[in-house]
Amino acid sequence: MRSEILRTLRNAGDSFVSGQTLCERAGVTRQAVWKNIAQLKANGFVIESVPNKGYKLVASPDALYPDDIKSRLADGSVCRKIESLEVTDSTNIRAKQLAEFGEEEGTLIIAEQQTAGKGRRGRQWESEPGTGIYMSLVLRPAINPVHVPCITLVTALAVAKAIKKTCGADALIKWPNDIVLGGKKICGILAEMSSEMNFVNYVVTGIGVNANNRHFPEEIEKTATSICLQTGRKTDRAQLAACIVNCFSQYYNKFKESKNLMPFIDEYDSLLANKDKEVRIFYGMEEDSGKTETGMAKGINKDGALVVNTKNGTEYIMSGEVSVRGLYGYV
Predict the structure, then answer these.
(1) Distance, CA of 245 to CA of 235 (rounded, Å)
(2) Disulfide engineering: 235 pairs with which of 7, 119, 171, 211, CB 3.0-4.6 Å?
(3) What is the residue-averaged pLDDT of the chain?
């Protein structure tokens, strides 16, 4: 109900919306509208009310409020339910717990802070409270497990597109799961699954975005940045979170039909930070040990592999225990 009230008020812009209109849109009584408006105000929404004119949304709080995010979701969104947490160990951990108990596809877990955020290859994701977007989505795609890694690349496309639409910033993708601005990382993506031989029980795709961070730990400040630091503008986190879900829904629905990345190759390659650049491929758990190889990154194929031309011929690099970096730096 509150999400429908917010949606109606936001769509009205600077105009007032009558209490009767809100009753009809939300399907409730005038008293129920009044109570929900009061609850929204208590949660930080600034709503002006004038007798005989109605209500107008003046400002929204800088918070990841579930009804605010719901009010911004497009029709047909994959997101059906939102669980919001002030603090959690990891939104991926929580999403997997829910998925194990049968939670439906489209359940979104979103948190203001993570204490044990998970990155690729077991790395910890720094989660400063109240500045970023930390969220995970439960999915149950009817695909073969071999195609699940493609969801990471589909998610990256959605995040890059949402940042462009919401923040006006030209984000790029560092294959397979990082989003970069100004040559530094602003977002990491981690897809995890539970599967049997030819059946996917569930997939959890986790997204961590550095939105309004101003500072980073010394050990990562050379490779990490935020949308705010790169654009000089504060990001509306609820708007960006909703836009990511909306964009993901479009790509995901298309992916479920194709079951590969063929429809997305050109768009992905256009956003690939290393396209037509020399890269170094690290094989193994650590980047300072094991086998390495250099070559020219040419794009992706329909299975999500990075196509690299090396001195030994064309290599198709699959994500996993492999890391790819620019020859002279992170990108």
Answers:
(1) 16
(2) 211
(3) 90
The dihedral through the CA atoms of 254, 179, 119, 274 has a sign that is positive
Cα–Cα distance between 127 and 285 in angstroms, integer?
23
Q: Decide which of 326 and 74 is more confident.
A: 74
164: pLDDT strictly greater than 70: yes
Rounded-to-integer distance, Cα 20 and Cα 8, Å: 12
What is the DSSP secondary structure assignment for residue 99, as one 8-state letter? Answer: H
What count of other Cβ atoms lies within 10 Å of the Cβ of residue 217?
Answer: 9
pLDDT score, position 116:
72
Angle 271-228-15 (CA atoms, 0-180°, nearest 5)?
A: 100
Instruction: Compute, in degrees rounded to 10, the torsion defined by CA atoms 290, 291, 294, 298.
Output: -100
| Long-range contacts of the stretch 223-228 (C-beta < 8 A, 24+) | 223/184, 223/185, 223/330, 224/126, 224/184, 224/185, 224/186, 225/181, 225/182, 225/184, 225/185, 225/186, 226/131, 226/132, 226/186, 227/163, 227/167, 227/169, 227/181, 227/186
User: With contact defined as beta carbons under 8 Å apart, do 287 and 120 qualify?
Assistant: no
Q: What is the distance between the alpha carbons of residues 9 and 39, in angstroms, rounded to a whole number?
A: 15
Q: Convert the pLDDT of each residue in 111-148 to its tens digit.
A: 999 887 655 444 555 567 789 999 999 999 999 999 99
Find out whether the peptide bond into 176 is cis, omega within 30 degrees of 0. yes
Beta strand 81-88 pairing with 107-114: parallel
| Coil, helix or strand at residue 128 | coil
Digit-coded pLDDT (tens) for 322-331: 778 776 667 7
Distance of CA 297 to the CA centre of its chain: 25
DSSP category for residue 224:
B
pLDDT at residue 117 in the model: 60
Instruction: Tell whether the torsion through CA atoms of 156, 144, 93 and 176 is positive or negative.
Output: negative
Q: What are phi and psi of 245, to 5 degrees?
A: -65, -40
Q: What secondary structure letter does DSSP report for 132?
A: S
